């Protein structure tokens, strides 16, 4: 009879753990102490403000020192009946739809270009990536030289060609498009590097095999390369979605959300409400809407994207 | 992916040297020129007198006047100092706080560790700048308005840093740790002598990403500062070049270049490290 029957592998380890029970306790305490600074900071600047924002969106501040008053979802009713909010939300959606597919497609094209044996590849790659390094504020300043109505480069070029100028940032029907173009310029190079890394991970045998079969490059791209890049596309997409909500720096220079809110985005609207109109309650209510959008993006990331990734 | 790659087997490389560039090469270069043009234009504008900006005479006389003007009209020296202090303190504080937390997550038996870790990851989506209203209130209650600490502190416990370092620490073999313990090292010594040195590439990658982020960050610094004493370069530049101030364009160009120069030069010198860092930090 096997003398070790019934003894599970690892039992010795368990005994070791039981024997050093106080050690285990000590390690728990030690671990907790190591976590403490991060936990305190996260609580102060992430969890508490999130909770406070949600709570504030359910209250109205009392006037002249009167206590705050619980109003339930009334602030949301006010927000949802505010046409400006819907305009801003629609802008943000259009902004996301305008920037994301184009910058992803451009990023992929850039990566494909740079992945080949291109002459002057180093320069080309550098040119694509450099806008990523600039602060959004600087990028906006530079694009101001293009968009400005009288002396801007775009209108001067149009003038040379005999067309009348466009008010790139002042015309409500054009302004959001102008902002989108600048954002694409700023972002595409950043997404390129992820596609480039993924392309370099595709085994060259696939290409050789398809060449033997005489597959055209076009169908090789759509049948092999593009599907293999899907995880990268998802990853980049999620980053792009977050950026579409999070980055509004350029509006401070280009349009300040105008003309007549034509380029206003949700986070900029929060800023306006809080620090220009001093309506903290409305700012909190819009922030909750942004947090909900981010929660959807986070769910998308943790369910769709991380099925492949292991956290252990 | 390009035709050069697929045909390299059939043609000797020399034969291609004189060939007409393919359509793809032309497209790649065209896109590259479009992409770099705005920056080149800003360079051109900054080094020429402002009257040529409108007429765009390519070989107008060179001048450094615009830089002198920008430097004289706004306290850029102070902004540089502020940004430098901000970036240094944020990155150092992030290294310390994130290392400790990552070590705890990687090696210590904390009850509810996975739930706690998911809670940390939430911060990947809920950034300090999304919560500007409440963070402003908290910063003012802590007396941090208009201080460098106020700009940096919300970013110190970075979920991203904790995540990256934890992943790295987990790959380090336990045997090294055991060996150090036999030599009489305590936990902090093990962390400092075994884990931190082996995670150097991660620190470099995270450091570069964090430096770029905080050098360029704008919204939260704008909200939390209100004077020259604490404003970083981005906010200083934003205040200086706001269209309504009517500063002339050549000066704005010069000011823009002044604020981006250090990071841009660092990037051009260490391109590979920057790109690798962004990649390493991104693919997780």
The top level CATH class name of the largest domain in chain B: Mainly Alpha
Output the CATH class name of the largest domain in chain A: Mainly Alpha
Order of helices and strands of chain B: HHHHHHHHHHHHHHHHH
User: What structural category characterises the helix and strand content of chain A?
Assistant: mainly alpha
Q: What percentage of amino acids of chain B are in beta strands? A: under 5%
- Protein structure class of chain B: mainly alpha
Could you tell me which chain pair has the largest interface and how many residues each side has? A-B, 100 and 102 residues
| Number of E strands of chain A | 2
- State the helical fraction of chain A: over 70%
Q: What is the CATH T-level topology of the largest domain in chain B?
A: MetI-like fold
The CATH superfamily label of the largest domain in chain B reads: MetI-like
Largest sheet of chain A: 2 strands, antiparallel
Cα-based radius of gyration of chain A, to the nearest Å = 27 Å
Give a written overview of the molecule:
The complex is a heterodimer of chains A (312) and B (284). Chain A is an all-alpha fold. Chain A has helices spanning 11-19, 21-56, 74-80, 83-115, 121-133, 136-147, 153-160, 172-200, 204-213, 217-228, 230-246, 249-254, 266-275, 280-304; strands at residues 59-60, 69-70. A two-stranded antiparallel ribbon of chain A has the order 1-2. In chain A, helix 2 (21-56) packs across helix 14, helix 4 (83-115) runs antiparallel to helix 11 and helix 8 runs antiparallel to helix 11. Chain A is flat, with a radius of gyration of 27 Å. Chain B has two domains: 23-63, no CATH class; 74-282, MetI-like (MetI-like fold, Orthogonal Bundle). Chain B is 73% helix and 0% strand. Chain B has helices spanning 3-7, 13-17, 23-46, 51-55, 65-73, 76-107, 113-122, 132-141, 148-156, 159-171, 174-182, 187-198, 200-216, 219-224, 233-241, 249-269, 271-282. Mean pLDDT of chain B is 84; it is low at 1-16. Classes of the chains: A mainly alpha (312), B mainly alpha (284). Chains A and B meet through helix 2, helix 4, helix 5, helix 6 and helix 8 of A and helix 1, helix 3, helix 6, helix 7 and helix 8 of B.
């Amino acid at each position: 009879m096997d003398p070790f029957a019934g003894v599970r592998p690892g039992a010795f380890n368990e005994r070791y753990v039981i024997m050093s029970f106080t050690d285990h306790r000590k390690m728990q305490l030690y671990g907790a102490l190591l976590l403490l600074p991060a936990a305190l900071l996260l609580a102060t600047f992430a969890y508490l403000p999130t909770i406070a924002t949600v709570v504030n969106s359910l209250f109205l501040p009392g006037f002249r020192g009167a206590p705050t008053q619980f109003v339930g979802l009334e602030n949301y009713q006010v927000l949802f009946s505010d046409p400006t909010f819907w305009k801003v939300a629609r802008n943000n959606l259009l902004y996301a739809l305008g920037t994301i597919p184009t910058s992803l497609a451009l990023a992929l094209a850039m990566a494909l270009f740079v992945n080949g044996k291109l002459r002057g590849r180093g320069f080309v790659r550098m040119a694509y990536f450099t806008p990523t390094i600039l602060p959004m504020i600087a990028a906006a300043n530079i694009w101001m030289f293009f968009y400005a109505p009288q002396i801007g480069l775009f209108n001067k070029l149009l003038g040379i060609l005999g067309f009348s100028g466009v008010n790139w940032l002042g015309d409500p029907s054009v302004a959001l498009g102008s902002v989108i173009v600048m954002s694409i310029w700023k972002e595409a190079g950043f997404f390129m590097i992820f596609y480039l890394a993924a392309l370099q991970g595709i085994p060259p045998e696939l290409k050789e095999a398809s060449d033997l079969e005489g597959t055209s490059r076009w169908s090789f791209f759509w049948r092999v390369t593009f599907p293999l890049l899907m995880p990268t596309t998802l990853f980049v997409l999620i980053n792009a979605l977050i950026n579409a909500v999070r980055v509004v720096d350029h509006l401070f220079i280009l349009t300040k959300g105008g003309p007549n809110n034509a380029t206003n985005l949700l986070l900029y609207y929060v800023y306006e409400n809080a620090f220009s109109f001093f309506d903290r309650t409305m700012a909190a209510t819009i922030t909750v809407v942004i947090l909900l959008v981010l929660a959807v993006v986070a769910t998308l990331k943790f369910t769709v994207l991380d099925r492949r990734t292991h956290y252990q | 992916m390009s035709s050069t790659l697929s045909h390299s087997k059939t043609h000797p490389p020399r034969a291609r040297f004189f060939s007409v560039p393919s359509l793809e090469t032309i497209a790649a270069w065209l896109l590259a020129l479009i992409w770099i043009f705005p920056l080149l234009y800003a360079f051109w504008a900054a080094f020429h007198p402002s009257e040529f900006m409108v007429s765009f005479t390519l070989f107008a006389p060179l001048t450094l006047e615009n830089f002198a003007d920008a430097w004289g009209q706004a306290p850029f020296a102070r902004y540089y100092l502020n940004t430098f202090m901000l970036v240094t303190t944020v990155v150092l504080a992030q290294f310390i706080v994130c290392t400790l937390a990552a070590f705890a997550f990687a090696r210590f038996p904390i009850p509810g560790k996975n739930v706690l870790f998911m809670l940390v990851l939430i911060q990947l989506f809920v950034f300090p700048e999304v919560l500007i209203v409440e963070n402003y209130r908290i910063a003012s209650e802590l007396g941090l308005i208009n201080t460098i600490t106020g700009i940096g502190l919300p970013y110190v416990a970075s979920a991203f840093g904790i995540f990256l370092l934890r992943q790295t620490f987990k790959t380090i073999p336990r045997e090294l740790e055991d060996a150090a313990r036999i030599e009489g090292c305590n936990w902090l010594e093990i962390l400092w002598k075994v884990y931190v040195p082996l995670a150097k590439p991660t620190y470099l990658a995270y450091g570069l990403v964090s430096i770029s982020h905080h050098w360029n960050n704008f919204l939260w610094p704008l909200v939390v500062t209100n004077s020259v004493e604490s404003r970083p370069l981005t906010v200083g530049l934003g205040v200086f070049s706001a269209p309504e101030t009517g500063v002339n364009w050549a000066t704005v160009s010069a000011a823009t270049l002044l604020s981006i120069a250090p990071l841009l030069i660092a990037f051009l010198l260490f391109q590979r490290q920057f790109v690798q860092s962004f990649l390493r930090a991104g693919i997780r």
